[in-house]
Specification:
The protein has 13 helices and ten strands. By secondary structure, the protein is an alpha/beta fold. The radius of gyration is 19 Å and the shape is globular. The two termini are 31 Å apart. Bound molecules: flavin mononucleotide.
């Protein structure tokens, strides 16, 4: 069984599904399993801050992809294009050198990435949460949008994906849209496609995959949490981000204080203060990855609601596609009188 649309043709993949990049979670094994499953597997370059390590991962993913064309999978690298990312240019250069096929840009101006990627025919999808940012990315020539909606894991947007996807399709009818946020079953994927998305872009459901290296505490927290256990905090990166509402998250607070808000808005301090906030936030997240650490700060989206098992990625993808097919047939059975 495979599905074909504008996106699967553009990226040469078998299914309209993307395994989204996840800071401290995505790893090489997961991306390889995603490719074996016929989807686009993504990871953030920041998971390999050391340049040599990033390069060796890219070399091995390229080797896997070129020796296994029958899987019809591909991979993408997520670059945080915000000025506060000190690794941006170095990571972009390594990706270009290794001819990464797909880029996902988040949190900033994607101009440099789009120009570099297009110099050798790679595709760039830009994370957007609103039309203003989408307009900017479109004017710079992006190849697609990632519509990041309410309840998504990570930097969730303010609008429901159904509305954001519709609105992007209305204003930019020729640009493919990937729907991100709250999708963790086949019917959810079908509803995103029905709204006009070309694929679903799922993160949280892959945190509990067998290939993910997260601690058993984090896995258990995902399996045990419901959608109302997810809260937003701006303490980790300065931008609202979804986390599980643990006692430790409550202890450090979910909102910046007045002084912090002022420092993060003031044009003179903004860049440096953001760097400081992110350094501290990333270190909190890294510590929480250590098994048994009581400082539990775990990123996850509202789609935890439907996640109840640990499975290999190939099985997750197979079940999602099967469910999507069943949901589609259910709809076909609908009588319109
Ligand atoms: C643990 C975690 C870490 C994430 N890290 C990143 C990241 O580094 N870069 C990024 O662009 N998005 C990141 N995201 C967002 C995902 O790429 C994606 O947009 C989101 O997971 C989709 O929503 P869902 O979790 O409801 O499937 C992260 C999400 C999660 C759950």
């Amino acid at each position: 069984m495979h599905f074909e649309n504008n996106l699967t043709r553009m990226l040469g993949i078998r299914h309209p599904l993307v395994m989204a990049p996840m800071f401290l979670v995505s790893n090489e094994k997961m991306v390889e399993a995603a490719m074996r499953s016929g989807i686009l597997g993504c990871f953030p370059s920041l998971n390999y801050r050391d340049a040599d390590q990033l390069e060796s991962v890219l070399i091995s993913l390229n080797a896997f992809r070129s020796t296994n064309p029958a899987y019809r999978g591909s991979y993408g690298v997520n670059l945080i294009v915000q000025q506060s990312n000190p690794f941006f240019q170095k990571h972009l250069d390594i990706c270009v050198k290794n001819r990464v096929p797909v880029y996902i840009t988040s949190l900033g101006n994607p101009k440099t990435t789009i120009e570099a990627a297009h110099s050798y025919g790679a595709k760039v999808f830009c994370d957007v949460t609103n039309l203003t940012h989408a307009e900017k990315c479109h004017s710079l020539g992006c190849d697609g949008f990632v519509a990041v909606g309410q309840g998504a894991g990570g930097h969730a947007g303010p609008f429901p994906i159904s509305l954001l996807v519709r609105s992007l399709r209305k204003h930019f009818p020729e640009v493919p849209v990937l729907a991100a946020g709250g999708i963790s079953d086949g019917a959810g994927i079908l509803s995103a496609l029905a709204a006009g998305a070309s694929a679903a872009y799922c993160g949280t459901i892959f945190i509990t995959s067998s290939e993910s290296n997260v601690s058993i505490d984090y896995t258990k927290a995902i399996l045990d949490s419901r959608m109302d256990d997810i809260v937003m905090t701006d303490r980790i990166s300065g931008t609202p981000c979804t986390i599980i509402n643990t006692p430790y998250a409550q202890k450090i607070g979910l909102h910046q204080n007045r002084l912090e808000r002022w420092l993060s808005k003031n044009p003179k301090t903004k860049k440096y203060f953001k760097m400081l906030v992110q350094r501290r936030g990333f270190s909190w997240l890294e510590k929480a990855m250590i098994p048994g650490n009581y400082k539990s700060l775990w990123c996850a989206g509202q789609s935890v609601e439907l996640i109840d098992k640990i499975q290999p990625i190939e099985l997750i993808v197979h079940e999602l596609m099967k469910e999507m097919n069943l949901a589609y047939q259910d709809l076909n059975g609908m009588a319109i009188r």
